[in-house]
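re: the backbone from monday

yeah here it is again, tokenized this time
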């Protein structure tokens, strides 16, 4: 007899599509790898398709699996909404996972604060923070993301946006370095000392270079790393400078990481940090609840930037 599809199998399918890995899907679902592998076998029989096929050392989805991924996610979302309705408005009764895409500059600050708040009120709710490898809204549309937090272009009509706060870049140095002992940071300091550039896209040139260029000056970038967290750790090693969001720099200093930050002595653009969701979630109780917690977690951070 052919295996029948049920919600548990669809959850396995969804996890496999998101991770492209049996072991990673097993971790997300809190299953053993053999159990997840057996579930993949059942999926293949029930759907009459291979779902995932070997490609080099990894697995890739079949065309059928790619076409089906959004529909499966929508079914799981609808089932979750039914469970929420049946359980009433008490988040303590919810058992679900929210996926939140957040940029690197904010994840180290927001993730622990938001996780603490959610765990206190809804112990069976899990937050899955997703790296911002793209700013495209497609994953909000297909339901693979619940929220998107970061700096982005103006949203399309079907995506809602709310500004959380405005931030700007500051210069971060080791607190015990010669730079870290100075009363202030000067343009000469910016030009004389090596820089670590933090860029997800691998860029060594940015707004600071434009500002220096207007003065006929330049800086020397010795390394480009994919995240501000890595750049800040490299800054601990000596008289080097890295630029990063003020909210993150303050977070690190408050937690006694031996860094010091300075205002950049040049005109630098501010960045609006936005919370985004798809319009179909406007009136969803669970989404509204999650968005409220994001706003409350961010409020103390925004206050320090005024």
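seq for it, each position gets an aa:
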């Amino acid at each position: 007899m052919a295996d029948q599809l049920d919600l548990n199998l669809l959850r396995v399918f969804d996890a496999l599509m998101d991770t492209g890995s049996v072991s990673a899907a097993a971790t997300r679902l809190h299953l053993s790898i053999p159990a997840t592998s057996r579930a993949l076998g059942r999926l293949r029989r029930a759907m009459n398709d291979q779902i995932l096929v070997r490609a080099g050392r990894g697995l890739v989805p079949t065309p059928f699996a790619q076409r089906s991924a959004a529909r499966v996610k929508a079914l799981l979302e609808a089932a979750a909404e039914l469970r929420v309705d049946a359980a009433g408005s008490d988040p303590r009764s919810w058992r679900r996972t929210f996926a939140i895409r957040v940029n690197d500059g904010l994840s180290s600050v927001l993730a622990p604060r938001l996780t603490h708040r959610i765990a206190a009120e809804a112990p069976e709710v899990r937050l899955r923070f997703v790296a911002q490898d793209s700013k495209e809204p497609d994953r909000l549309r297909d339901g693979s993301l619940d929220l998107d937090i970061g700096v982005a272009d103006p949203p399309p009509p079907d995506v809602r946006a709310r500004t959380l706060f405005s931030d700007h870049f500051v210069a971060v140095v080791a607190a015990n370095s010669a730079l870290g002992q100075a009363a202030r940071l000067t343009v000469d300091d910016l030009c004389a000392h090596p820089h670590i550039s933090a860029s997800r896209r691998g860029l060594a040139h940015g707004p600071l270079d434009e500002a220096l260029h207007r003065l006929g000056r330049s800086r020397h970038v010795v390394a480009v790393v994919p995240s501000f967290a890595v750049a800040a750790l490299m800054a601990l090693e000596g008289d080097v400078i890295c630029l990063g969001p003020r909210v993150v720099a303050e977070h690190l200093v408050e937690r006694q990481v031996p860094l010091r930050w300075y205002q950049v002595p040049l005109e630098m653009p501010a960045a609006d940090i936005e919370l985004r969701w798809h319009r179909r979630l406007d009136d969803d109780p669970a989404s509204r609840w999650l968005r409220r917690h994001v706003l409350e977690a961010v409020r103390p951070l925004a206050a320090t930037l005024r």
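Residues 283 and 289 are 10 Å apart (CA to CA). The longest strand covers residues 159-167.
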